[in-house]
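User: My notes are a mess, but here's the protein and uridine-diphosphate-N-acetylglucosamine's SMILES. Can you give me a structure?
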Amino acid sequence: MQRKVIIAGGGTGGHIFPAIAIANALKTQAKGDIDILFVGAKGKMEMEKVPQAGYRIEGLEIVGFNRSNIFKNILLPFKLIKSLGHANRILREFKPDVVVGVGGFASFPMLDRAQRHGIPTLIQEQNSFAGKANKVLSHRAARICTGYDGMEKFFPASKILVTGNPVRSSITQSHATRHESLVHFGLDANKKTVFVVGGSLGAKSINEAIHALLASFVEKDVQLIWQTGKPYFETAKAAAAPFSSHVKVLEFITNMDQAYAAADVVISRAGALAIAELCVVKKATVFVPYPFAAEDHQTSNAMSLVNKKAALLLKDNEVGAQLGTTLFSLLQNKALIEQLETNIASLANPHADQTIAEEVLKLVR
Ligand SMILES: CC(=O)N[C@H]1[C@@H](OP(=O)(O)OP(=O)(O)OC[C@H]2O[C@@H](n3ccc(=O)[nH]c3=O)[C@H](O)[C@@H]2O)O[C@H](CO)[C@@H](O)[C@@H]1O
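Assistant: No problem, the inputs look usable. Here's the predicted complex:
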């Protein structure tokens, strides 16, 4: 009998790409005999990225709580009620055996309704600090697969399985070489290269710090692959034009495996998936956690590596003044790069997608 699974959530790449990794692993394990429906939030990134990965998606009309402008939350209760109704309709029509929540807007209404209808739910929590919605949902969830250990602080201990975060197979099974990837980006295969990535949406403070350092990259003969996110892309492109021999600017990178393969050193936000991927690809990294993520969870994510000497960290408010020194001295320090590479590699969980898929299939009655 064909199994039916809903995967709900999204909002940013850090929720969408683990969801796609789980879906792909489910398809492999069920040998194609599975029907998967994604549920996301209308207007968010998943409505584009999920169909690109070959899956169907339904969009709920749901928005997140706006922390910066409290008055923008007036419509929130109405949208929540509407999305709960929509979630009920999806359950009635699709009749899933299991509902998986990956966090982000659509996850809460979909899992809440599934739990009320007695449908088993599995939560995949990416961060080392649990969000409020997942804490509420955890009491009635059947299983909680976590990216980090120590999550008993937030969830019922008996339901937790520490799996690590599921990384897309295009990264875990990549054959991209450094040489071929540098050529792909139009760069010189003999020069040191830095990859800067500000998470799926880009990072303002990192972009501004890099912008100020552009001439230094040429001076030091170091190449740069600069992922800017949408808002900063045009500014960055114009600023980098005089340095185009050394600097490549991209708004969003689809083949992340090539960007990782090209890099000697990475500068990155500390989103949970960026971290999981950097462990798999074994890169010496300077993390700049986004300080306004809920409960400052990016700092907590990054510190779990820094404490194991597996990465360096710069605070967001230090990045403008210190990024240049930290980066260019790291590039000169071969021993430190090797130590960071060895230590970060030991934290990789390249089979998390398969382990989570097994857990999902166990819940099918
Ligand atoms: C601001 C904020 O609250 N961000 C959260 C969001 O981040 P965000 O979505 O930015 O973070 P992650 O770093 O976890 O994931 C980014 C994902 O997008 C992919 N990618 C990124 C850039 C690009 O050009 N191309 C590309 O494919 C990466 O390979 C990765 O798979 O979700 C994460 C997982 O819950 C959280 O840890 C982050 O704190």
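The first strand starts at residue 3 and ends at 8.
User: Great, I'll file this with my notes.
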